[in-house]
Design goal:
D-amino Acid Aminotransferase, Chain A, domain 1; 30% strand; D-amino Acid Aminotransferase, Chain A, domain 2; 6-stranded mixed β-barrel
């Protein structure tokens, strides 16, 4: 077993998956040791951002086997993203089969049980080929690259400080709800600015009124209210996070607390006793404070992970690593 996780940085594994779409059909996919691509300089992915990607993880169980978490949900969300970007879709069963083959071929890179590390899996599709004008690409590449990873934010899981960005992540009725590179490119400037100012990441507000929280950097935002409710923003420009979906299920069915999808106003943070960011990369990262218009709001759970956030984290990771029973067909064991 090879364990080379270095935070959330790329560690080259044995092989990647690669599959090409040409002449209106998918060619047979295969594993390849080369993770470098040669594509046309006029590829639509380079000039017009015609691409989409996913993120999921493989977890080493205590018995040595490997768990995939909600891979079928990633497959369906990837289809939605590809359709929106005018790209061919991958059938769910083919997506899952490709992920399985890639993970099994790189199983040496799935970190050992017990160290809170995992194998990050990055499926993606890019438009390639000579294409000068703005139109869908003539060819596409579907690939899966994996890497051993540790924590997304440096160090142990402790509440982090965030600031509110003046920039918008996504436009109303735009691409915010799908997982495409343009959304993340639009957040880079704000993220770099926040980190230069000493924050872990930034909070994005709704692009229409700039009064309501939408996302926390590259992750969904959630909070626990004074009335012990799990609340998370609802907006057509927010990515439908699989991690957040899981937390909402766990909050309702395991912690027996009300789940609210609604508005979280930036000037009413006093209503929250806990706050956090959630996603495949970050899993659950508690937020200790949010700075908005030079005023720092410190949450009651600012030094340690709050009671409900800790319970949700224990439930989620327990299921992912196979220590707790799969509640709803989330786990695929290899």
């Amino acid at each position: 077993m090879i364990s080379k996780a270095k935070g959330f940085n790329y560690v080259k594994a044995h092989v990647i998956w690669i599959q090409r779409w040409k002449n209106g059909a998918w060619e047979e996919g295969h594993l390849d040791s080369n993770d470098q691509f040669t594509i046309s300089g006029l590829s639509t992915s380079l000039h017009y951002g015609q691409e989409a990607f996913e993120g999921l993880k493989a977890y080493r169980r205590k018995d040595g086997r490997i768990n995939l978490f909600r891979v079928q949900d990633n497959a369906r969300r990837f289809q939605t993203s590809c359709e929106y970007m005018m790209m061919p879709t991958i059938p769910v069963e083919d997506f899952i089969a490709a992920v399985k083959k890639t993970v099994i071929a790189n199983q040496d890179f799935v970190p050992p049980y017990g160290n809170k590390e995992s194998l990050y899996i990055r499926p993606f599709m890019i438009g390639v080929g000579d294409n000068l004008g703005l139109r869908p690409a003539p060819e596409f590449i579907f690939s899966i690259i994996v890497s051993s990873v540790g924590s997304y934010f440096n160090g142990d899981v402790k509440p982090v400080d965030m600031s509110v960005s003046d920039y918008d992540r996504a436009a109303p009725h735009g691409t915010g709800h799908v997982k495409v590179g343009g959304n993340y490119a639009a957040s880079l400037k704000a993220q770099v600015k926040a980190r230069r100012e000493g924050y872990a990441d930034c909070i994005f507000l709704d692009p229409t009124t700039h009064t309501k929280i939408e996302e926390a950097g590259a992750a969904n935002f959630f909070g626990i209210t004074k009335n012990h409710q799990y609340i998370t923003p609802k907006s057509p420009s927010i990515l439908n996070s699989i991690t957040n979906r899981s937390l909402k299920y766990l909050a309702k069915n395991f912690l027996n607390i009300e789940v609210i999808e609604g508005e979280i106003y930036i000037d009413k943070l006093d209503d929250l006793i806990e706050a956090g960011a959630c996603g495949t990369a970050a899993t659950i990262t508690p937020i200790g404070s949010i700075t908005y218009q030079n005023k720092k709001h410190i949450f009651p759970a600012s030094e340690e992970m709050g009671h409900y956030t800790k319970k949700l984290n224990e439930l989620l990771t327990g299921i992912q690593y196979g220590d707790l029973k799969d509640p709803d067909g989330w786990i695929t064991t290899l």
